[in-house]
Amino acid sequence: MKTDILIIGAGISGTAIASALSAYDISLCVLEKTNDISSGASKANSGIVHAGYDARPGTLMAKFNVAGNALYPEMCERLDVPFRQCGSYVLAFCDEEVRELEKLKARGDANGVPELAIHTAEAVLANEAHVSPGVVAGLYAPTAGIVSPYELCIALMEHAMDNGAALFLETPVTAIERRKDRYLVRTPGRSFDAACVINCAGVHADEVHNMLLAPAFEIRPRRGEYFILDKYANGIAGRVIFQCPSKSGKGVLVSPTVHHNIIVGPNAEDIRERDATETTAEGLEEVWNSALKSIPELPRNQIITTFSGVRAEPSGDDFIIQDYPEAPGFIDVAGIKSPGLTAAPAFALFVEEMVRTFFGGLKKRKDYRAERRRMIRFQELSHRERAEQVKRDPLYGRIICRCEGVTEGEIVDLIHRNAGARTLDGVKRRARCGGGRCQGGFCAPRIIDILARELNLPKEEVCKDSSASRILTGETKGKDSAQ
Question: What's the CATH superfamily of 84-145+221-314?
Fold first, then answer.
């Protein structure tokens, strides 16, 4: 298949770049090795839009963090993605940590982070009543925020596809060759002929780079584990609550989510397996005990699920966004660890300019659509709007997920959108079905029925997440069996 631009990876880097480049009159393909968008580190992170005080001045992280943060309100409004600029605190519990806050503030000032301030213990406790009374001070960053990371990736990819991009799922790259002035990219099912290749392969980005060029960097996998608390715990933290950072990361946080849960985590464990996303009893206990330092009243009886994600730690400790004289048109976007989610809208524009330069300019699409078609979120409608929507489409009158109040009409819509759901977890990532207290105990069988019907599949072929995670194997009783 011939294309102008080929993007490898459909996480936050690949989808943000695809969305930016879809404004141009080009052919654009995105390859993803798994069976859905945002199936790697992008779905399994804290969902924090960082203010930008943590990165060292002069790094790509610092440059794109602050710029990306500023782009979030407009981008999320345009793409209809839940986002809230709730602010954040970094807590200090001793004089040494207060000095660390002062260093962070100086770094943030140098990076151009607006309105940073160090609050007294009294001010912190006035704003966050559940924070430990042992707090001494807090660095306040009002521009920090929270977003649903997987919903953002899905929206970016849908926006790109609405503007002509093509998505190929379950399409891992096995080899890349340079042939004259183009690239042959091989996958198990087909080959792609591209003028420009953008490597956004996450924890596998060094492996993809090494298919074409001599090794230039190394990606080390680092796992972080999390808890999600039920909405009954909402209010225990109104802002993102950090502890002072360490060499291994920003530390364990306690934060609200855009869907009114509480997220707690992560720890930081260097591992060998790049896709090892299991949780461990030891790791989770470490996370919980560390979080209690910030908020001693965390209600353990409100935990509804746990998860982990593997982030890409680059050998150079900065984002790797570069092209190569020996391989014109090949661009690495690698080592996108935190604050990669925040930085993505900004470095996508940077890569867009690199691509424009490579092609000697690009023409804008005449039919470009800047906005994504808005979702109908039934729970957010007024009583009158709900009645009108049910009159237009009776499927919106049937509640499928009681915990999150999601209707059959919403599920059918998200299945048939570009980049639509194909699995039980795909529906969950797009509409929160199965994300509530019962974790799918009530709605899962009904969603399987809907997926099978709308995708014209046998129920046995509906998966939980990956293509290997089959839920049903067959009927236990035939129609003529004795009842």
Answer: D-Amino Acid Oxidase, subunit A, domain 2 (3.30.9.10)
